[in-house]
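FIELD: query
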Amino acid sequence: MPMTALTGTRLRERRLAAGLRQSDLADRAGISPSYLNLIEHNRRNVTPEVLARLATALGIEPQALAEASAGALLDDLRSAAAALPGAEAEVARLEEFAGRFPGWAGLTAALHGRAAGLERAVAALNDRLSHDPHLSAALHELLSALAGVRATASILAETPDLAADWQARFHRNLYQDSERLATGAEALVAYLDRSDAAADDGATAPQDEVETWLAARGWHLPEVEQGRAEDLEADIAALASAAARSLAQAHLVQVAADAEALPLAAFAQALAETGPDPAALAARFGCGLLAPMRRLALLPGAAAGLVTCDASGTLLFRKPAQGFALPRFGAACPLWPLYAALGRPGTPVEAQVATPGPGGGLFRCLAFAESRLPLGFSGPELRLAAMLILPDPAPRAARPVLAVGTTCRICPRGDCPARREPSILGETAR
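FIELD: result
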């Protein structure tokens, strides 16, 4: 067969990966070391018979050394170079690059494919753009990360002789920028998934308004603790929508009731003695479990997160924990302990969970659901479930770790048994 740069360099990389010297491989293949040296340095053609003997000596198929096996990869690399003509990638040396660094070549092509997919997703959603500053910020972050991936990939494509330390540096850059792409895509999809009709000004949903206001105040309302809830009237009046103002008032009523049942000073003392155990705290104060769960999440500077839902599974309140992302609208991960508790009211559910990606982590999740009959014994049963999300950095050997996500559309766990729909981010985490 005609000799190509890809064949020779692939042969050399395969030999080095197998830990063989030229003399060893030449002896196994029945050729002279000098002939093998000329083949590896692209100075001699290699016949199909010799190529087959070399492949057998390496324990691989001859096609693995042939140009045809890399045709698709080379086409993808050419597409990546064409997509960024300003980088002036050395297309004529693609065979050498793919042959000497097949792993890097595959990574570059895969990142180009992912970037192209994200670009198509953004284009398909283009009609949703309407000078929205929040949406513009999300798109800017997405495209900024995309530019970083392209720039790094172009350097790798045009510089096949990178030193090992520079390869490692660019690998880290690619990894970090791909994570920025995933995070940016998540933010974009979450924002576009909102119900515009629910917001009076078309900019955000009422629940988002209230939670943004609470987040800006650190999720704690000392005015309510001190019996001065009226001091918050101006803040609530400044919320954009009437629905948001109604939700904020309802939250104040709930916080006031929890503060009365579990006074802050007494609760802090009990917490120091019992630890973050909602059941022990509820027994101590003679109240239901949901009240101490709310108090634990909304204490000043608390790192814990909290989500609540009704019987439909719709999230009613969302305070995130660092590394545990929450969807902006419904359709949360069905594997959350929250939903297991919802199906078994009155039964506590505890699990150690892991979230995907480098920004994720381990958490201890405590969930509980309460039932009530507001219309009497023969009326409908209403359920309210809550899940307390406590950072738990060390895995516990005696307890299995449950892999969860945010929502199927932006969860990269491809092997999840509860997946409802494919992820737009691809399958990048397990």
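FIELD: remark
The longest strand covers residues 362-372.
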